[in-house]
Amino acid sequence: MTYVVTDNCIMCKYTDCVEVCPVDCFYEGENTLVIHPDECIDCGVCEPECPADAIRPDTEPAMETWVEFNRKYSELWPVITRKKDPLPTASEMDGQPDKLDKYFSEAPGAGD
User: Do 104 and 72 form a contact (C-beta atoms < 8 A)?
Assistant: First the structure.
């Protein structure tokens, strides 16, 4: 089992989860985060830390797509291990529908 970041992180990019991760398996894109599914140890400490409720276990229905999404971008983006400020749009974008199609950027973030 692993945890994955889903589309509600897009345009929010809260990093509270990064700070508690014991294995540094979060990777930073321009406007979202992902978890490397092969590095995640399934400890679950990140899930309750996400203000946007964007982190889900892969055992939930329809998570296969998100596992592959997280795998793909974690291999392209830099690791992030420290908390940063969320995006300025975070509070207004939290919970918006169709964020993957409307706002997702493949560009990498700054990382650490």
Answer: no
- 65-76 b/e (C-beta count within 10 Å ≥ 16 → b): ebbebbbebbee
- Give me the pLDDT at residue 32, please: 98
Q: Residues near 68 by Cβ (< 8 Å), separated by ≥ 6?
A: none
C-beta separation of 19 from 37 below 8 A: no
**Token representation of residue 26:** 């979060």
Residue 102 placed within a domain: no
Asked if 111 contacts 28 with a C-beta cutoff of 8 angstroms, the reply is: yes
- Count structural domains, the chain: 1
Answer yes or no: is 77 within a domain: yes
* pTM greater than 0.90 (yes/no): yes
**Is 8 within a domain?**
yes
Helix ranges, 1-112 (H): 16-20, 64-74, 90-93, 99-103
